[in-house]
Amino acid sequence: MTDPVAAYNFDEPEGEVQDYSGNGRHFALGANSTRVAGHTGNGLTKNGPGFQVVAQPSWIGTDAWTIMFWQQGLGDSVWWVRLYNNGVDSGSGILNVTGLFRARVRRAGGVTDASITPIADGLAHHYCATYDGVNVRLYVDAVLVATSAVALAPTLSVDRIDIAEHTVANFYMDDLRFFNIAIEQPEIAQLMNTPVSAEPSITTRWRRGDGVDLVPFLLTPSGLVGLE
After folding, report:
1. 6-197 — its CATH code?
2. What are the b/e assignments for 95-108, b being 16+ CB within 10 Å?
3. Where are the beta strands (DSSP E) in 73-164?
4. How far is CA 27 from CA 15, 17, 55, 95, 162, in A?
5. Band of the pLDDT at 168, cuts 50, 70, 90?
6. DSSP run (H or E) holding 43
């Protein structure tokens, strides 16, 4: 699978939200942000105004990107994830506003949205927005539900990454991932069913010089873990 530039599961019992991509992009929770039961383990919710800032300055690209997460509840939100530009006081990302759930690309010439009517069934759903430099796409539960061509120019810089613009705690988001490319549908489906893990691993085996396999093991950040 494609490596994310940042990945968060919100499962820490306290303290900073850890980045499990291996890139060290951790962030501190703001005063109105808290962990609650999520889709797998914990998730993030907010009870108060403003954004939860993830990164300032940003580390995500502007020519192509993917944002994905699990969400339950609609909150009272405008932005779920915002790739913010200081100059226009707005940005790209995923938002729920004026009766539509939108994947948005903001360029200097204006905005392009791929949008649907919000899903209000009370269940958790996986949302993914991708931008490949040509089209912005919105996926729900790994199914493509909206596409729009982006013809506006020029590209805007991303000065800050914000999430969870809510004021009441009637939602959570979980397993949040960022990529610097537009992920394709088969991989979106695979990632949807793969929780962000604190222990990414590689399965392999010791092999003798004569080609005989010995003990299989996992190579994890904590060291080698034998499987037999």
Report:
1. 2.60.120.200
2. bbeeeebbbbbbbe
3. 79-85, 90-97, 100-107, 110-116, 124-131, 135-140, 143-149, 160-163
4. 9, 5, 7, 21, 11
5. confident
6. strand 42-46
Mean pLDDT, the chain, integer: 87
Side chain identity, residue 124: A
Q: In the structure encoding, which two tokens stand for residue 126, read together?
A: 């996986």
* Phi, psi at 63, each rounded to 5°: -85, -25
Q: What is the H or E stretch that residue 185 is in?
A: helix 185-192
b/e burial code for range 137-156 (CB count within 10 A of at least 16 → b): bbbbbbeebbebebeeeebb
Which residues contact residue 14 at a Cβ distance below 8 angstroms, ignoring those fewer than 6 apart? Answer: none
Ordered by start, the domain boundaries in the chain are 6-197, 200-228
pTM listed for this prediction: 0.85
Q: What is d(CA 52, CA 162) in angstroms, rounded to the nearest whole number?
A: 6
